[in-house]
Design a protein that fits this description.
Elements: H1 2-5, E1 8-12, E2 18-22, H2 26-55, H3 61-90, H4 94-112
Antiparallel strand pairs: 1-2
Helix pairs in contact: 2-3, 3-4
Length: about 110
């Protein structure tokens, strides 16, 4: 979760509020890429292994495994598409990258259950 926050730069405004925008610091972007990549890789294998643990003895397990993989690939595609659409709509990646930490929390909750 903290790694996904690395992509955001939070600044304080003169009025006492905050602005959230994508960072341009290369070191922070590198940390984000490494943490996010490792996290995605871990979640991908956790979903596959959790299905094997729960349904491994079922005769149609290979069909379930294929369906889960197709859903993960489809979700990855939709995430990229949604990020692009949010950028086109708002003119910034800030909205999309502010959503990523919220999704990371949901993934953490899902994996812990």
């Amino acid at each position: 979760l903290l790694g996904t926050l690395m992509v955001l730069k939070v600044s304080r405004t003169d009025a006492g509020g905050f602005t959230v925008e994508p960072t341009t610091d290369h070191a922070r972007l590198l940390v984000f890429a490494v943490v996010y990549g490792l996290g995605y890789g871990a979640v991908y294998t956790l979903v596959q292994s959790k299905a094997a643990k729960l349904f491994g003895s079922c005769p149609d397990f290979c069909e379930l495994q294929g369906f889960l993989a197709a859903c993960q690939y489809g979700g990855s595609f939709c995430g990229v598409l949604l990020t692009g659409k949010l950028h086109d709509y708002s003119g910034s990646y800030g909205v999309a990258f502010a959503i990523y930490p919220c999704l990371a929390v949901l993934v953490c909750v899902h994996c812990c259950l």
